[in-house]
Amino acid sequence: MRIRIPLSAPDVSEADIDAVVSVLRTARLSIGPKMEEFERAVADYAGVRHGVAVSSGTAGLHLSLRALGIGEGDEVILPSFTFIAAAHVLLYERAIPVFADIDAVTLNLDPEKLEELITPRTRGIVVAHTFGYPADLRGILDIALRHGLPVLEDACEAIGAESHGRRAGGIGQVGVFAFYPNKPITTAEGGMVVTDDGELAETIRALRNQGRKDTDGWSDHRLLGYNYRLSELHCALGASQMLRLDEILRRRMDRALRYSRELQSIPEVMAPPLVASDGRVCCFAFVVRLTDEFTQADRDVIHEYLTEHGIGCGRYFAPIHRQPLYARFAERTRGGLPVTEHVSVRTLALPFFNAITDGQIAEVCETLREGIGRARRSGAHSTAADAGCSR
Predict the structure, then answer these.
(1) Where do the CATH 3.40.640.10 domains begin and end in the chain?
(2) Is 213 in the active site?
(3) Is the Cβ–Cβ distance between 342 and 259 less than 8 Å?
(4) What is the pLDDT of residues 37-93, one digit of tens each?
(5) What are residue 197's phi and psi, to 5 degrees?
(6) Is beta strand 151-154 parallel, antiparallel or unpaired with respect to 174-178?
(7) Contacts (Cβ under 8 Å, ≥6 apart) of 144
(8) Residues 287, 162: contact at Cβ < 8 Å?
(9) Quick one: CATH architecture of 14-242?
(10) Among residues 34, 113, 183, 213, which one is catalytic?
């Protein structure tokens, strides 16, 4: 079945296209003025002094860890309910992921579960703003300060989110944004590291460019670095998109609110929270949660039904500690991750992008209702109900 309503879609304007084409008319296709313009725009937006453009959000997370001095045998606490790149970058440096449970409402790292995971080997905390909902960084930073730990903000899904008057990415020691095509703004591929720490920024700039510092000659390399640069073409697209960021965020909130109104007639589904008590939500994705009577098998039946009817959807997220690569780290969860495991089998990402129409949202919700009906009639749902699954 052809997907008629995609899970996500980029929003590229004629002005964006013109900005990219204009770079092709120059002789500077990398490490040029568009990179500097894009870095300045994102850093200013995040409320920090430095921005470093990189080839992806994953690259940004990796370089941030390396610049923070996190290496082999160091423990880093992070949520298991997040995109797997946050854990992969730890393995790049042979560090040890220690998975923490999440809050049942925000789906972000739960500060109350954090301190018990800190050991003498803990060297940092990675905080993700899940699906664009701002994490409780005030509580997390308080714990981190007491233990002398840096906080790395994985804000890849959260450009524009705010917490206590500050924008996500610019609150911890270092933050990372991503600009993959499913994000609110895109550079096709790309990311940005933001920080107030000038020394950290200088190190990350060197690491992205084969370990060469700006003050070095072309053939001088002080550090073991990488080719994590972002081209002028990507940066031109990003700088152009930044001009529309506030407009785009307003549009996405409008679309999310429309979804929430449509879902009020489907009691088996919980819409994501769109209001933060201490800040602002960035609507990166629209991830709903099935009520407790449903199982993972039910969710998968619904996912299949939507796909069969041409509607893109995603099972966000599979817990990282349940992935085969990370099974050996699961024992460090100390009591398990009950909220993560309960929530993750019931979440489903619905189509969400800037240009989604009222009619498409209505169709998605009606098809979702039908998919729930199929799940209710399936053997998996009956088995769960007979087993006394809580509501």
Answers:
(1) 14-242
(2) no
(3) no
(4) 999 999 999 999 999 999 999 999 999 999 999 999 999 999 999 999 999 999 999
(5) -90, 105
(6) parallel
(7) 125, 150, 151
(8) no
(9) 3-Layer(aba) Sandwich (3.40)
(10) 183
Q: In the CATH hierarchy, which top-level class contains the domain 245-386?
A: alpha beta
CA–CA separation, 16 and 38 (whole Å): 13
E strands, the chain, in order: 50-54, 75-79, 96-100, 122-128, 151-154, 162-163, 166-167, 174-178, 191-195, 269-270, 279-280, 286-290, 347-350
Locate 171 and state its tokens: 């609150």
Give 176-211 pLDDT, tens digit per residue. 999 999 999 999 999 999 999 999 999 999 999 999
> What is the arithmetic mean of pLDDT over 366-387?
77
Could you tell me the two tokens for 380? 């998996």
Q: Which of 95, 66, 113 is nearest to 334 (CA)?
A: 113
Over pLDDT 90: what percentage of the chain?
A: 91
Strands 191-195 and 50-54: antiparallel
Domain with CATH 3.90.1150.10 in the chain: 245-386
Integer CA distances (angstroms), 295 to 151, 302, 337, 376, in order: 35, 11, 17, 11
Average pLDDT over residues 236-252: 98
What is the C-alpha separation between 121 and 332, in angstroms, rounded? 13
Cis preceding linkage at 317, omega within 30: yes
Distance CA 81, CA 321 (A): 9
Residues 6+ away with beta carbon under 8 Å from 292: 342, 346, 389, 390, 391
DSSP string, 40-101: HHHHHHHT-SEEEEES-HHHHHHHHHHHTT--TT-EEEEESSS-THHHHHHHHTT-EEEEE-
Angle, CA 90 vertex, CA 169 and CA 115 arms, to 5° = 70
